[in-house]
Amino acid sequence: MQNFFVKSHGLGNDYIVLNREKIEFELTKKAIIKICDVHYGIGSDGILLKVPSSVADFGMRILNPDGSEAEKSGNGLRIFAKYLYDYKYTIEKIFTIETPGGIVRAEIIEIKNEKASTIKVEMGKAIFESSKIPVDCENEECINETLHLEYRDYQINCVSVGNPHCVVLKDELDVSEIMTFGAQIETNKMFPNRINVQFAKVISPTEVEILIWERGAGWTLASGSSSCAVACIAIKRGLTERKLKIKMPGGSLKIEIDIEWNIEMTGEVREIASGIFSDELIQNLK
User: Fold this and answer.
1) What confidence category does residue 281 fall into, taking pLDDT thresholds of 50, 70 and 90?
2) Are residues 89 and 201 in the same domain?
3) 3-state class of 236 per DSSP?
4) CA 176 → CA 180, 199, 223, distances in Å?
5) Beta strand pairing status for 218-220 and 207-214?
6) What distance in Å separates the CA atoms of residue 231 and residue 229, rounded to the nearest whole number?
7) Helices (H), strands (E): how many in the chain?
8) Are residues 256 and 277 part of one domain?
9) What is the rounded distance in angstroms from the CA atom of residue 15 to the CA atom of residue 222?
């Protein structure tokens, strides 16, 4: 079907999935913003676009609600993998997906009513080198460094899991605090490509609770790549074991990281709705 969309969520982090070969409109910045708007469009935390790939089984682009593009999304990858399996693009339970942040391996772990419900994604390798994240830091790794904002300072820890992350370890978590300072950290000059932000509280050696400010999207109920980033930093700082439960407002993910910093993430995904873009909405996208 032309102009067909699927909307799904991973722990409350919701995406619209489209097939580039089956839409009759251009995904301009204006169109992306309009589609993601909860009042004037369908409403979502972003768009996942199925595109061809010459190096993996499938290709995916990740479009943020502000019209920018992300390198990788853990929840987005699980949602996209569900879409590929549920809508018969593949009958295999293991396949690869190319993203701007690298090629990942997805595995359908659990199926309910012939629909994928739990999915594992190999998220690649964590990178701590400042220049490769990138972050403007004097040291080779940006671990426990000071970030100066206008009204306060934060001790930050940075890592790339295919996209850049800044983790702030906290004794207590406060939603109003990350809502206030998340955008300031995201857009700080220390981060040339902007950055995803997490405030994290270690609960035990196997569990961490986090709040998320997502680059290009803002306050977010859950994020797969953020969960991976926080797990990497918690392990790097010697605070936890390598198998972790990451707890977010939208739910929890299982993260496992080996001694070479390869990351696996497992979690649930659910479809919300599917449908056809109306002619009137398509006209408004132009």
Assistant:
1) very high
2) no
3) helix
4) 6, 12, 18
5) antiparallel
6) 5
7) 5, 18
8) no
9) 12
| Run of H or E including 224 | helix 224-236
Q: Say which amino acid occupies 1.
A: M
Q: Domain containing 87: what range?
A: 4-123+269-285
| Whether residue 224 sits in one domain with residue 112 | no
SS3 99: strand
Count up the domains in the chain and report the number: 2
d(CA 84, CA 134): 32
Q: What is the pTM of this model?
A: 0.91
Cis amide bond preceding 52, omega within 30: no
CATH of the domain at 92: 3.10.310.10
Question: CA 211, CA 220: separation in Å to the nearest integer?
Answer: 8
Question: Half-sphere exposure of residue 155, counting CA atoms within 13 Å on the CB side?
Answer: 8
| Residues 213 and 142 grouped into a single domain | yes
Structure tokens at 182: 């998340």
Give one DSSP letter per residue of 33-93, joined into a string.
Answer: HHHH-TTTS---S-EEEEE--SSSSEEEEEE-TTS-EES--HHHHHHHHHHHHHTTS---S
Q: Same structural domain for residues 250 and 143?
A: yes
3 state SS of 68: coil
For tokens 């930050």, name the residue.
Answer: 156
- Tell whether the model's pLDDT for residue 286 goes beyond 90: no
Question: Is the domain of 36 the same as that of 109?
Answer: yes
CA distances for 256 relative to 18, 41, 121, angstroms: 30, 37, 11
**Res. 189: pLDDT tops 90:** yes
β-sheet bridge partners, residue 119: 108, 267
Contact of 136 with 192, CB cutoff 8 Å: yes
In terms of Cβ atoms closer than 10 Å to its own Cβ (0-12, 13-18, 19+), residue 96 is: middle
Degrees, nearest 5: CA angle 222-192-255: 30
